[in-house]
């Protein structure tokens, strides 16, 4: 009987351990967790703090005496692999940029878009040349219009829900627990990821900042319209900012890529390249930066790539997304950058 009880307890323990581990993995990577923006949390915390401040201070003094108490925040040192997937292909070093081929156009009273396809570095590269009357036309959207962890949808579906004429995937903020998130002048996350972030300011200009040297609140107060935390910076004032062997996280040298660029005075480009297929090898970061410099981009920033890289124009997927080795299959992402149509 004792042997049976011990065996039964062992089986029960194993089942409970497996169930807990499974739930923990699902909770981390699958189960959606809507979250509040920083502003909403700040309001709630301020109200709560005003009610309990005196009792907390009394408890601290009782435990530690009347000495100075310094609040410290724990720093997350966990290494999180970036969402660009590992892949490898031989890259043809021959660069063929030239003028590209026009494959689509759109215009209204506030926006003009010319879509071109280029062939360079043995890859198809899609460039949307965008001119807007005001930088506010450069919008962002979250999957299911909800900020949170494990809340994702395809770029094409998010674009459709927001009546986007043109859209590309964003920085996939939900794949990381740190990195500033400001979208359409609203602060969602103020935890530094110690990256170089892209700030699109209300005046339309690009600005690159180190998250370790400035706070998200300061960026918002200074007029940040959008802030993306992925990187790296590709071009800064027309100068290439990446080395020939530089890469993102665990990604290999040739990948599908997504980037956004600034040419000046409300003039932008969205760039998406194919990769990991027999038709397109994919680009290194240096090749992406070189290509964007060749077409006249002044400032450029790398966004999430790999299976996330998707461009949608007038409801159609323009490039060939590859997810888990499958062509023409979009990866669900957290967010997009888009241009809306005229209402």
TrEMBL record:
Return any one Pfam family short name.
NAGPA
Q: Where is the Phosphodiester glycosidase domain?
A: 162-339
Highest rank taxon of the organism: Bacteria
Which PANTHER family does the entry link to? Answer: N-ACETYLGLUCOSAMINE-1-PHOSPHODIESTER ALPHA-N-ACETYLGLUCOSAMINIDASE (PTHR40446:SF2)
Task: Write down what this protein is called.
Answer: Periplasmic protein, PF09992 family
């Amino acid at each position: 009987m004792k042997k049976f009880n011990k065996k039964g307890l062992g089986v029960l323990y194993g089942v409970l351990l497996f169930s807990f581990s499974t739930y923990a993995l699902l909770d981390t990577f699958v189960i959606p967790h809507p979250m509040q923006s920083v502003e909403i949390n700040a309001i709630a915390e301020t109200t709560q703090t005003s009610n309990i401040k005196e009792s907390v201070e009394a408890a601290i003094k009782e435990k530690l005496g009347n000495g100075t108490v310094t609040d410290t925040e724990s720093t997350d040192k966990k290494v999180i692999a970036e969402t660009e997937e590992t892949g490898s292909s031989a890259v043809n070093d021959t660069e063929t940029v030239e003028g590209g081929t026009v494959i689509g156009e759109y215009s209204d009273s506030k926006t003009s878009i010319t879509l071109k396809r280029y062939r360079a570095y043995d890859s198809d590269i899609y460039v949307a040349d965008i001119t807007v009357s005001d930088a506010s036309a450069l919008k962002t959207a979250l999957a299911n219009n909800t900020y949170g962890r494990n809340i994702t949808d395809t770029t094409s579906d998010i674009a459709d829900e927001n009546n986007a004429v043109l859209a590309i995937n964003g920085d996939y903020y939900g794949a990381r627990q740190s990195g500033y998130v400001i979208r359409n002048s609203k602060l969602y996350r103020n935890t530094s990821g110690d990256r170089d972030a892209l700030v699109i300011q209300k005046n339309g200009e690009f600005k690159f900042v180190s998250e370790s040297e400035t706070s998200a609140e300061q960026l918002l107060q200074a007029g940040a319209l959008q802030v993306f935390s992925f990187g790296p910076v590709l071009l800064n004032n027309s100068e290439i900012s990446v080395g020939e062997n530089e890469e993102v996280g665990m990604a290999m040298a040739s990948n599908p890529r997504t980037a956004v660029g600034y040419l000046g005075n409300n003039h932008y480009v969205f760039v998406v390249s194919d990769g990991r297929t027999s038709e397109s090898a994919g680009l290194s970061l240096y090749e992406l930066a070189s290509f964007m410099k060749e077409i006249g981009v002044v400032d450029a920033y790398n966004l999430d790539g790999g299976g996330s890289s998707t461009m949608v124009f007038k409801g159609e997927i323009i490039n060939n997304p590859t997810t888990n080795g499958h062509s023409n299959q979009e990866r669900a992402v957290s967010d997009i950058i888009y241009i809306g149509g005229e209402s």
